[in-house]
Amino acid sequence: MDTVITKTLGTSYKTGGTSTAGFDCSGFTTYVYKSIGISLPRTSQSQYKTGTSVSRSQMRPGDLVFFNTLGNGVSHVGIFVGNGKFAQSSSSRGVIISSLSEKYWADRYIGAKRIMSTTAYKAVAYD
User: Do residues 6 and 126 touch, judged by C-beta distance below 8 A?
Assistant: First the structure.
């Protein structure tokens, strides 16, 4: 379990945060991807415009998952870690692992995007 995501669990939430001093949602995804040499756009909306769309049944660890939490399109992003779960920087709890099947997230799910290669995702996969 010694992965980038595991090392960031518990990091506090910070609006605009992009480091282990505190993350917002897209700052967290940007940080994780940067750690393996992949550059992402800074906001959840711009991250949603990158990569290739992936169906829920085809998702694999490392895919980005997107949500509409504010009622006006993409406003939250996390990283799928497998077994129906995703890592995210929650505004109330910091970096945590959540279930895509939780009603709150299931109701707000927009889609998933694949950005990294099969070999790269193993560097961030949550065991």
Answer: yes
Domain 4-121 fold: endopeptidase fold (from Nostoc punctiforme) (3.90.1720)
Cα–Cα dist 99/69, whole Å = 15
Predicted confidence (pLDDT) per residue in 44-84, tens digit: 999 999 999 999 999 998 999 999 999 999 999 999 999 99
Going by C-alpha positions, the residue among 118, 112, 5 that lies closest to residue 57 is 112
Give the global pTM.
Answer: 0.91
Active-site residues, by number, are 25, 76, 88
pLDDT tens for each residue of 1-24: 248 899 999 999 999 999 999 999
Tokens of 124: 């961030």
Strand positions, DSSP E, 5-63: 18-19, 22-23, 52-54
